[in-house]
Recover the amino acids of this structure.
C-alpha cells in the first residue's frame, strides 16, 4: 500500500482533497453545484481534444475549463444562470463527443478522463498539480471576505461596493483552475462528488464559515484516503468509494444538523417558557 506508485496516489489525493474541500465550500455556499458539475465536464472535452492533438492533457483541461467558466459567467449575467450553465454543458459534451469520435485512444485512457487515474499518477505530474492547487488556495484566501459576503448577503455586499458579478466570475475562474488539477486524478464525474458532498456535510455541522471550511477539507481528506485504501485492498474502482463516501458524509451531516437544530430549537422554547410574561 506504500509502494512508489501508491505514495504518489496518497500525495496527489491529499492535494486534491484539500482543494476540493476549500473550493467546494464556496460552491455549496453560493449554490453553484451545477457550475461545479458543468466545468469538469467542459474540462473533459478539453482533455479529449488534447489527446486528439497529441498535446499535454493539462493544457486542454485548463483551456476548456476556463472557456466553460467564462461562458457560464457571461451568459448567466444576461439571463437565468441555470439555463446558461445547461447550454454551456450541452455544448461542451457535444464537443467532447466529437473529439472522442475522432480519437484513436484506448478505451482505458478515455475511461480515466471520466473516472480518474489516481493510482496511475506519475511523479512528474505531482509538481504541476501542487502548483495549481497552491494557486487555488491563494486565490480563495485573497478573495475570502468579499466572496463570503457576496455569497451569504449579496445585497449587503453591493452596498459595501462589492461587484457580485465580478465575484461570480472570479469564483468560476478559481473553480476552473481547481478542476484542471483534479480531473486527471478523480475524473470529470467524480470530482463533483468530492467537491459537493464533504462541503455540504460540513455546512450541516456548523454555521461558522471558517470552521465549516476546515471541516470540509477534513471530510474530503477522510473520504479520499478511505477510498484509496479500500480500493487498493478490494480491487474495486476508487470512483465507487469516492461517490459513496461523499454521499454518505452528506447524509450523516444532514442527520446530525437536523438533530442539532432540533435540540437548539427545543432549548429556546423551554427557555421562553421559564421567562414570566412581562405585565402590560
Amino acid at each position: 500500500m506504500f509502494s512508489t506508485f501508491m505514495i504518489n496516489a496518497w500525495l496527489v489525493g491529499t492535494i486534491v482533497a484539500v482543494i476540493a474541500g476549500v473550493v467546494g465550500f464556496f460552491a455549496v455556499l453560493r449554490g453553484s453545484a451545477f457550475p461545479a458539475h458543468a466545468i469538469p465536464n467542459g474540462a473533459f472535452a478539453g482533455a479529449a481534444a488534447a489527446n486528439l492533438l497529441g498535446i499535454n492533457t493539462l493544457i486542454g483541461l485548463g483551456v476548456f475549463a476556463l472557456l466553460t467558466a467564462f461562458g457560464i459567467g457571461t451568459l448567466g449575467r444576461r439571463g437565468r444562470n441555470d439555463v446558461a450553465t445547461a447550454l454551456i454543458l450541452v455544448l461542451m459534451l457535444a464537443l467532447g463527443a466529437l473529439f472522442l469520435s475522432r480519437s484513436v485512444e484506448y478505451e482505458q485512457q478515455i475511461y480515466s478522463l471520466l473516472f480518474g487515474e489516481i493510482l496511475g499518477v506519475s511523479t512528474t505530474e505531482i509538481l504541476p498539480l501542487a502548483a495549481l492547487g497552491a494557486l487555488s488556495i491563494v486565490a480563495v484566501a485573497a478573495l475570502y471576505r468579499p466572496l463570503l459576503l457576496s455569497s451569504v448577503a449579496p445585497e449587503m455586499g453591493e452596498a459595501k461596493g462589492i461587484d457580485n458579478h465580478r465575484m461570480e466570475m472570479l469564483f468560476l475562474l478559481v473553480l476552473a483552475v481547481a478542476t484542471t488539477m483534479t480531473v486527471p486524478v478523480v475524473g470529470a464525474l467524480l470530482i463533483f462528488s468530492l467537491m459537493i458532498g464533504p462541503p455540504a456535510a460540513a455546512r450541516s455541522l456548523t454555521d461558522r464559515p471558517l470552521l465549516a471550511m476546515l471541516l470540509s477539507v477534513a471530510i474530503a481528506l477522510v473520504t479520499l484516503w478511505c477510498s484509496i485504501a479500500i480500493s487498493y485492498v478490494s480491487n474495486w474502482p476508487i470512483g465507487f468509494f469516492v461517490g459513496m463516501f461523499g454521499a454518505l458524509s452528506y447524509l450523516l451531516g444532514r442527520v446530525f444538523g437536523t438533530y442539532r437544530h432540533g435540540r437548539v430549537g427545543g432549548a429556546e422554547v423551554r427557555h421562553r417558557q421559564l421567562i414570566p410574561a412581562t405585565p402590560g
In short: The chain has one domain: 4-274. Residues 4-274 form a domain with the ABC transporter involved in vitamin B12 uptake, BtuC fold (CATH 1.10.3470.10). The two ends are 73 Å apart (CA to CA). Confidence is low (pLDDT under 50) at residues 269-280.
